[in-house]
Every structure is written in C-alpha cells, then in structure tokens.
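Escalation from tier 1.

The customer reports that the assembly of two entities below gives different structure tokens on two consecutive runs. Tier 1 could not reproduce it. I'm attaching the input and our single run for tier 2 to review.
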Amino acid sequence: MKVFSSSLPPPFPVIMGPTASGKSFLALQLAEKYDGEIISADSMQIYKGLDVGTAKPTKEERAKIPHHLLDIIDITEKYDVFAFRDAAEKAVKEIRERGKLPVIAGGTGLYMRAIMYGLDELPSSPELRKSLDEKYDNEEKFPELVAIMEEKAPADAEAFRSHRRKLIRAYEVLLLTGKEMTFLQQAWKREPRKDAQSFVLVWENSVLKERIALRCRQMLESSWIEEAESFIKNGLLSSPTAWQVLGYRQIGQYLAGMLKKEELFEKISIATWQYARRQNTWFRTQHPEAIRISMQNKNSFRDAERVVMKFSAKE
RNA sequence: GGUGGGGUUGCAGAGUGGCCAAAUGCAGUAGACUGUAAAUCUACCGUCCCUGACUUCAGUGGUUCGAAUCCACUCCCCACCA
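Tier 1 run:
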C-alpha cells in the first residue's frame, strides 16, 4: 500500500517522551527493522563521557545502529539549540542521501520543537552577549537591566523580569534589532514540518514514576557515582552548559558526605520525576502535531512500533 | 517510677490570647518556555454552593467577648535520672 505521494519523501519518525519512557529502545527497534539511523535529540547526551548519568545508548547498541549527535562535544564547551538544529538537519540530510531512514529520538523539548517547527533567525552576537552576561547575570546588577528594559522595552521587561537569562537575551536582541523580543515572537512560525511525523510516548504517571525510580537505582548501582566523581573533579559543575545535567550535583553532595546513599537515591529520583513532568507538559502543550502513543507495559513497544510505521515511513 | 522537653495543615518546621486556614522550606498539581532548556520561571496547594462560609493545630473538659496559643486531666513521643 502506498500512502504517500511519490513526489515527497516519506515522513521520517520523530520519537519523543519523558525520561525512561523507552524512546531509545523504540528508536533502536525501528532503526533495525527499517534500515534507519538514529539522531539523538538530547541536550546532555551530546557531551562526551556523560554516559551512565545520561543513560546514553550502549557501545553495543551504537555498534549495531549508527547514532548521531552523541558525544560530539566536551563538557568545557558551550552548546545551544541553534547548534543542535544545524547539526540535526545536516544529519537528516546525510542519512537520506545514504538512502536510509532517519529516526530522531530524544527528550529535550526545545530541541524537538526546533526540529518540528524550526527556529526563527534572530541576530546574535557572542561578544555582545558575553559582555552583557558579565555585567548583568548576577543578583546585584540584574535590577539595573530590569530598569533599562522597563524604559526601553516594557513588554519584554514584563515578560522576562524573573528570567534573568531571557531578559538578557531580549536586551541583546533589542540592541541588535531595535525591536522587542515579545514583538518579534508574534511573527514566528507555527506550522510543523511536513517531512517528519512526531510521536509522544505517554505513560501513566504512577508507572512512569516506577520506571524512573528503577532506572535511577540501576544507574547508581552501576558506575554513575565514579563517573560523576571524575567529572566533578574536572569542573563539570562550573562548565558553561553541561553543569545543568541532572543528578551529578546530588552525587557531589553525597561524595561530600552531605547525603546518605538512600537520600541520594531519593533526591535523584524526585528530581528526575520533576523533570519528566516538565517534559510531559512540554510535549502536551508544544506539540499538537504529535501522535500520542499510550504505553502500558513492555508489550506496548510492539504496538508503538506499528503505530509509528503506519504514520511515518512506508515499509 | 522521677524530672524535664515535646505533640501544628503530606513531611520538616514557625507561630505562645485577636492581624491564623495558620510563616517558611520540601514534596505535590497545573502552566510558561526560540542562541545555557536534564536548565530557568509562574500559579495553586484544609473543605465548600469559594470576593464569602465551614472544619482544623493529639484528646476531653475548662478560663475568656475571643484560644494553635492559658488551665486541668488523659493518651502518645523524646531526653535525662532512677
């Protein structure tokens, strides 16, 4: 059966879902069966060496199926959505040129939206931004920026007054374009791309919570603590962007004797759960284009695979 | 058995006569999100017929116009002494 017009390439699947929802597993199954390659859309798995803590696909899995955008930068480097978008689009193009099926899987909402809806080009100036960060990215001076913005860009000031980073970026954009961020945002695109179909893996809260707890336990019992110790020694917690990874900070507290092992487990499970909920909110509200696949247990993966293939690439 | 300190809304923990449905933190729930996003931020968070009403601060009974706050007894917890 032919579902798609021959002039268009079949849509490739984009799998999203909260942590521990089984995205990677599903992506792997799909890639194996349909001659695909996987593109990871994960803001932390891009870092070299953060393996256990980010539940990165194993060496074996990666040997079986090519994975892209894993281990591409060092924790000392900065990364952002635009860099991701460019890298991901390039990977999609190359995989297609090889005649293979791109399968995107990941949990970083913003990155997912960048793929499905694109990003709107806004000017940026690393030098300007750097100086603005140095000046205003602290408790004491930030109020001055708020005052400036209230004067020059009241709508932005209102929208971002409690988001330091966002207000600084808004100021950067204001200086570069003379326009308010909130004004520019009105013109941003809202249509999802046509050459991909996105899916969200949806688990019932209680079940997902259990999966998360189980996985946190396993991660802590394997070599996560050692991994964290060595990365913390190498400055992970004061790195430009990688410091934001979940869990490593808590392990640092444990290593410093501030937490008992069980408390560490509790803290990490809770933080991971909170993260999963934010992800679910994102996918629910930011991705109306996505097909929601309800998951009950391990058997659901078979059904999920069927759903994905029905709506995306043809067999 | 004796002495002292306690029992507060899921947890921790303020509050010692009215401004208390009760600070604050945590957890929980909903939401926001375009160059740091596994981050950051917002709202709600006793019950209800929800711009007001009702039931709460171990229990019972008092004092008082009025109590989580004062008194008495009861039950429980902790510390120390025996």
